[in-house]
Amino acid sequence: MAAVESGLPQVQKEPSEALQIGVKSNGIESIPKDELRLSSSECVVSIKEILAQPCQDDEERPWEKLSIYQIPLYLKNGEDKAYVPQIVSLGPYHHGKEPLRPMEQHKLRCLRCILKRFNHDIGPYLDSVKKEEEAARACYEGTISMSSDDFVQMMVLDGCFVIELLRGVSMGFEELGYSPNDPIFSMRLLMVKIQQDMIMLENQIPLSILDLLLGLQLGVLIPGLVARLSMQFFDSLHPNFSGEWIFNRSSNLGRLHCLGVFWQSMLPFNSTRSETKQQPRSWKLFIRCLTELRDARIKIRLTYTDNWGDIRFRDRILWIPQLVIHDGTRSLFLNLIAFEQCHFNCSNYVTSYVVFMHNLIKSPEDVRYLRNKRIIMHCLGSDAGVVDLFNELSQKVALDIEDSYLYDLSTEVELRCFNWYSRIESLQIKCKKWKAILKHKYFDSPWSIISLIAAFILLVLTFIQSLYAVYGYYKVGY
């Protein structure tokens, strides 16, 4: 490489005649073959030397350990508020930003309270996290430009703050030694904002670090305890209040974080699709809108289930669990979708549900119908806000419909309820309905029938009279 680099300045200082800027008579610049051959050989040597160098990303950044990602630009769509914390920073991505610095003093206050409560010294915490530094850095996407000491201190400070929040919500902050009028933990609105910050993909601490720090506090490592505490902490954000929190204890939660635990708790234990014979389909729509489904005599019913995404179809009835939409739903779903879009070998359960609901809901009338069925409950101010919400959530989302857990359901709905036989049957039912309306509204008395018969006879006589007049005109005159 040194030979190549030393040669480059000579070419720039003493350019050949063919490389000098100028337009010849024919308007085409030419490069001598020997110089072109030299340039190509230099390029090959340069690429070979670059490839021969050890790749830091391959050796020091094992991609399979990634779980905390920076939001891709194509998902942000100019929107930062849903992905950027507003109150507290956790982890390296937003560490030290000016709007989030006021919370740093409260993190230190929590750490002092923990050390005082357990009569501990800070040394074991720093030493234990130092041993896990490499594994913790590997959880984050991209290069973390922090020194080893700064990174370890940040992990301890942020991790202890998260644990104190989780335990405080579970046990009560007064039980942990905090004042009833604490400037942070007694402010309900502020706690809601902190809760929403802690569910953002770019604002996470690896669960393995949280387990380690809680184990140091309690004196014993209890696997899954932080996961259970975090599920209790985020209970109010869950989109289905009727279900209970569940998560697969056999999964590798150590690679995840609070958002990952929340995401996994929303999955069914068996989210794989049944291996059924697929029928060829030419349509690209996931599911038809609610108006079309109702016109096809498909009933919509509320189902009570522990799994918020357990949508089912049988006997021309579409069973949908209840969805609770609140102020934090938008940011929650955006970050869950971003996690599914970024995480390796990750299911698209949440993305599939959002796209399904986006296709189902196309107008405020659709939302009103689902609200009357208690399938959707929201506090957005208007039904149009729900339509806008799903429109925004579905923008620029990459989803292979055939890989969705709802693909079989949408196929069954289409094949059973929108074939030619079903359309003819639906038309016959509509004709019967129109006949009933006509009879009830216009023929509810015998006088109406007599008037209709008289009008019909008069219409026939008039037609016959006109026919004879035209016939006579052509027969006599022409």
TrEMBL record:
UniProt-listed Pfam families: DUF247 (PF03140)
Keywords, comma-separated and alphabetical: Membrane, Transmembrane, Transmembrane helix
Cross-referenced InterPro entries: DUF247_pln (IPR004158)
Segments traversing the membrane: 449-474
Protein name in the entry: Uncharacterized protein
Species, as recorded: Eucalyptus globulus
